[in-house]
Automatic annotation (TrEMBL):
The keyword Nucleotide-binding appears for this protein: yes
Region (Disordered): 482-517
Stored InterPro entries: Anticodon_Met, Met-tRNA_synth, Met-tRNA_synth_2, Methionyl/Leucyl_tRNA_Synth, MetRS_core, Rossmann-like_a/b/a_fold, tRNAsynth_Ia_anticodon-bd
Molecular-function GO terms, alphabetical: ATP binding; methionine-tRNA ligase activity
UniProt protein name: Methionine--tRNA ligase
Gene3D superfamilies: 2.170.220.10, HUPs (3.40.50.620), Isoleucyl-tRNA Synthetase, Domain 1 (1.10.730.10)
Top-level taxonomic group: Bacteria
Source organism of this protein record: Actinomadura rubrisoli
Broad enzyme group: ligase
Entries under NCBIfam families matching the protein: metG
One Pfam family of this chain: Anticodon_3
Domain Methionyl-tRNA synthetase anticodon-binding residue range list: 378-484
Amino acid sequence: MTAHTYITTTIPYVNARPHLGFALELVQADVLARHRRLRGDHVRFQTGTDDNSLKNVLAAEAAGVGVQEFVDGNAAAFTALAGPLSLAVDDIIRTSRDPRHRTGVERFWRACADAGDLYRRHYEGLYCVGCEQFYAPAELDGGRCPDHGTELQRVSEENWFFRLSRYADRLRDLIGTGTLRIEPAERRNEVLSFIAGGLEDFSISRSTVRARGWGIPVPGDPGQVIYVWWDALGNYLTALGYGTADADLRRWWTGAERRVHLVGKGVLRFHAVYWPAMLLSAGQVPPTDILVHDYLTVEGRKISKSGGATIDPAALVERYGTDAVRWWLLREVPRVGDADFTPERLVGRANGELANGLGNLVNRVVSMIHRYRAGHAPATEAPAPDAEALNLAIHRAPALIDAALAAFDFRRATAAVWDIVDEANRYINRVRPWELAKSERAGRDLDAVLATLLRATRTIAECLTPFLPDAAARVTRQCTPVDGRLPAPSPLFQRLTTPAPAHDPETGDQGAVDRRG
């Protein structure tokens, strides 16, 4: 039976243009979606933008622009990333513009109210606008936000609260039994430790005055707007028609085999504690998987829109190409731990593996088939000499990729593809087809060698498709006969050069790059 898999990214604030950290999450989600489609699943891949944040209001005020105009402009930059990053996105929701969203958020609020989980009370606390979150004094780093390093505001007002404390036992059971899977294990343990420390009810509204009148009003209480995180988390349901039409909700949420959220470690608490509790309150099933990535950094500083260190992913693609950017994100970023970005690392990875490794391999194979067989792909089932290691790499790759992506390990998954590339290049150097062509065994053995190498390149293209869809398509075209003959060999990747001047982490400027082959 074909499974239904729903894959989502977080929806970022649009207080500034997108940065490379969000591009990482988009690419990871795209890989998982493409992979599951190749394995026969019905897949919905969804992303969007979080427009209803106080951060957005303050940024618009600083820019001297109306809030809606401001968020529309920045949101367009986020939604436009699908092209440069080669994303196969099914739906994009904008929380200030999409008519599905407000209706669904209001319905969700009422469902939790009907469950007896919402109440009003006065509250005082320390608030970080950057996180849109209250912090307890014990959570601070020298009195500052542990994530942004900024001073917090003391806020005193009456808000609506959600009875999170009611759901501690159920959350512990969901996560402890693996019904709600959190990967990697370090992040699961972090969530369980947070729950064990005791869950407190949390504020889910803000005064209309403090919110500058921006956001979704609390149903029946126009003096309050719904807290941006309550609003934003609802997008995973509202985009499925929750509150308007439930057909997609049944298909992709209630009845889906996998409901997968990709999130950064900085928002883990919201997705792994608050959101499942909210869903339980509203009578909805929780997600099945929360897959957590760490941060990207520049010279050790976290990449963020407001933190001073930022990299524009669209500009990066313009200079280096989609394949190089996607490949660095998938090959360099570890499953656990932050990854430091430099243009030199991106260029080194692209030249070393894509141009010199895969590009050179395909060129060698196709060139030899043209030279020795006039471009006709050898048709033989005879075993190639000394090809055991290469055949093993070809045979093992699909299962290794499946296991690695199931564990949310993109490095290990891409390594399985690269084992074939490395083994094929070693095989060519070991067997030396150009010498075999001169020997008395040139006919049968050379045909078997070339057929095995062509099978390797085609398998690489198939396995590479979720990771580098554009490059995989080029490899497939190069290795597929047209009118009985392979196309003439042509370069698959441009060689890149390191930028000049050097990257400036303050401006995000990557310098010039020569993309000529």
